[in-house]
Input
Amino acid sequence: MIFTDQSLHSIYVQLKMQLSSCRVDETIEFEVIDPDISNEFSGTEISILGQKYIYRPFKVWVDLAEVLHCKIHTPRQLKNNRIQISYSPLNLNKSWHNHSGVHITEKYGVGSDFSKIFKFEEPYFLNDYIRSLKEILVDRGMKLLNLGINRGDEFRIFIEVFREISGAIQFTGIDHCPSAIKKAEKSFPEDNFSFINEDIAKISDLGLPQQDIVISIGTLQSPDIDGKEIFRYIIQNVLSKEGCVILGFPNSRYIDCEVVYGAKTKNYSESNLNLLFKDVSFYKKYLQQHGFKVLTFGKYYVFLVAKKE
Output
């Protein structure tokens, strides 16, 4: 296939139809104008050697692959100012969510498919988490609590961002997964780190001291807990008077080792953001009612940062 001056809608329809009969071990190939030949807005008509083309940056083909639930392979340079792009369909059944026969506490354990995911290797997640940290006040002597710490990745980035003062901060991580907590303890053996292997639904029984920073990424939305009730307890009993909060809400899922945009709920084949918007609205409103200034942003994860006015 060679795409020259066809509309993106026409290309979308044609590729989607071809992919509908394509196996996961097959690829479809097509040729397009080399995006490096110019620098235009997507959709700009250009003419090369008498041939009309609609110019599209390479990012368009990357995004289209994601929309069509495909992997995009490294393009191949061709003659006549074109490149060859290849897509292969994702295996929609290959997801860490499709676990079976695994105890609930080890769904996110060291030996699980979830443990193969490194969110901080995703540029948007890394950038937005770092932005969240820079939005809050961090100083020596502070206490930081992470709900759902797993193996401790969020602590590692925190340390790298605040390297000069991280040794003077007290870190506490809670997670109900025994193997993940053991890995975190091995990764952070320093005296200013402590880890608790417990269900965060029992947080009121832990006797935690007041915390200056509370972070929870993708944990309070778990269907196995009442995240809103836990959060109310945190704000009323654990967070210090001038404390800050960072929450992360998943707006993506992993399919066949690829991150795919959009939160998905049961009974929907495509993403449905209703629950995401509902959750974010609840936490934002609750924090504002308690005197916090709230900022929200993000792509694959929606981050909510709250600090006192």
Q: What stands out?
A: The chain has a mean pLDDT of 91. The chain has seven helices and 15 strands. Residues 104-308 form a domain with the Rossmann fold fold (CATH 3.40.50.150). The helical segments are 8-19, 58-67, 123-134, 153-161, 178-187, 227-238, 274-289.
